[in-house]
Amino acid sequence: RDFNKLSSKQDPSGYKDAVMKEKSKNAARTRREKENSEFYELAKLLPLPSAITSQLDKASIIRLTTSYLKMRIVFPEGASVISHAASSASLDIVGRELGSHLLQTLDGFIFVVAPDGKIMYISETASVHLGLSQVELTGNSIYEYIHPADHDEMTAVLTAHQPYHSHFVHGKTATTHLCTQINSSSLKQLLHRLLLLFLEYEMERSFFLRMKCVLAKRNAGLTCAGYKVIHCSGYLKVRQYSLDMSPFDGCYQNVGLMAVGHSLPPSAVTEIKLHSNMFMFRASLDMKLIFLDSRYHVFIRLYILLRC
């Protein structure tokens, strides 16, 4: 204390600067601790295992949180299902186990892409086919992981053109759920009018992409120059805002692409299981038949009987 008094008397400006620096350091340390605590709590809210969220850095937490919030906008009906399931621990556990089993039997991976190409969601099974983790892919642009020659095709897939009725399926909206829960006739009429202004459609999409694959050569399957051909099939979710009764007038908003990716079977397949509704044939390069299975006659007779 005497030294502090002495030093403050000898150099009052230097002493004040030292005190201010110490206070600034303490304030910065407290701010960092609060910030880390908030990020830790935010990471725990992500729908990911705690073993993964505990290892995330701040940038990854922000990236994954942003992607999750975008998914809530694209699929608002899913949020209510999750909230109801979370009320029961047993239902929550069963739902998670069922989801993981469905992904395993799918032999592929599910992904949702925003109109700008950002991956809003991708299942953890992508690591089996590509060697890239779910955390690494989510929130980043899909263009970073596909072959440059496929960028134009991906852009065309994400583009919502003027729809035709044969290509579209009328989707469910949050308004229809509200209409069933409201008793007031005036509110129902208002919501029905809003339903005419806001419709959702699903446009089918099927395409092939060359995606980056970092798996070992023995586990990668059919790859070329570090890329693996993935067959993607799904739909483009489109929202329509219209003031007319016609479902083809108005403004269309591309919400996102939801698809399932499958790896192509390896070229070294030597045995194919023939089911009862299949037969085998061989043909030359000019498509002349060289060999026909004996079951071919059964299908020909059945075809003739059906035509009669």
TrEMBL record:
GO biological process: animal organ development
Sequence segments annotated as region (Disordered): 1-33
Residue stretches of biased makeup (Polar residues): 1-11
CDD domains: bHLH-PAS_SIM (cd11434), PAS (cd00130)
Residue ranges with Basic and acidic residues bias: 18-33
Residue ranges annotated for the PAS domain, each copy included: 95-158
Top-level division of the source organism's lineage: Eukaryota
Record Pfam families: bHLH_HIF1A (PF23171), PAS (PF00989)
Cell compartment(s), UniProt: Nucleus
Domain BHLH: 19-72
Gene Ontology MF terms in the entry: DNA-binding transcription factor activity, RNA polymerase II-specific; protein dimerization activity; RNA polymerase II transcription regulatory region sequence-specific DNA binding
Keywords from the UniProt entry: DNA-binding, Nucleus, Repeat, Transcription, Transcription regulation
Gene Ontology cellular-component annotations: cytoplasm; nucleus; transcription regulator complex
Listed PANTHER family: HYPOXIA-INDUCIBLE FACTOR 1 ALPHA, SINGLE-MINDED HOMOLOG 1
Protein name: Single-minded homolog 1-A
Source species of the chain: Sinocyclocheilus rhinocerous
Gene expressing this chain: sim1a
